[in-house]
Amino acid sequence: MTKRQFKPTYFVSVFVFLVLLDMIAGSFELSLLRHFTKPSMLLSLFIYFAVNGKSLERPTYILMLAGLFFSWLGDVFLMYDTISSNYFILGLIAFLTAHLLYCAIFAKRFSKRLRLSFWAVLVLLIAYGSILFLQLQDGLGELQVPVIVYITAILLMALTAFGRKGMVNVESFKLVFSGALFFIISDSILAVNKFLFDVPYSHILVMGTYASAQFLIAKGVLLQDSK
To answer: By CB neighbour count within 10 A (0-12 exposed, 13-18 middle, 19+ buried), where does 193 fall?
Structure first.
């Protein structure tokens, strides 16, 4: 692989522009503009990865594209969650699928040697997930089981991302694991804002961390075979 493959294409600039535009649209409740910006963000990242990831192992390439596609699908469904709770469930399922696809990618480079740090991260993730669920529990109603499943999936995604340590280059590991943590932060803010209390500037916080998560994961996977 040559370094040229990892130089940002104009799709990255488009992605950043759309993220910033979506933050503005969401902050000023410009719903018509958001119908363009929100689905377009992941589409630009999808194209960026599709163009730059062709030299990756075929299964990794396909799984990552599928993960980005289901994330895009989740974005689309969640745009309509105020119309019907069914759209929220569909969005949850779409992102759950994306997390499991990311888990499959990360598991391909999972270290067989589980260091003390791995168990420490496992304990921290379980503790965080448990505390988050207990805080949300009273407001979840019939969504308790789906949310438990979703929290488990996203924590597993972060754990498998950490499990790549020592099996890929340092830059790839840091990017992917940081992306996984940003995903947890983004979904936590989203859940707290929806089920617990209004979070100030929630849209900016959610979209900023979410966009960062997706880009860092995509970029990290692109770099995992570089020396």
So the answer is: middle
**Structure token digits, residue 159:** 């754990």
Tens-place pLDDT, residues 96-131: 999 999 999 999 999 888 888 999 999 999 999 999
Position 88, amino acid = F
Asked if 203 contacts 21 with a C-beta cutoff of 8 angstroms, the reply is: no
Q: In whole angstroms, what is the distance from residue 94 CA to residue 175 CA?
A: 23
Output the six-digit token pair for 69: 């596609």
Q: Which two tokens stand for residue 171?
A: 């830059």
Structure tokens at 139: 């407001």
The Cα–Cα gap between 182 and 20 comes to 17
Please give the DSSP secondary-structure letter assigned to residue 57: -
The model's pLDDT over 8-60, given as tens digits with 9 standing for 90+, comes to: 567 888 999 999 999 999 888 888 899 999 999 999 999 999 999 988 999 99
Nearest residue to 118 (alpha-carbon basis) of 89, 161, 79: 161
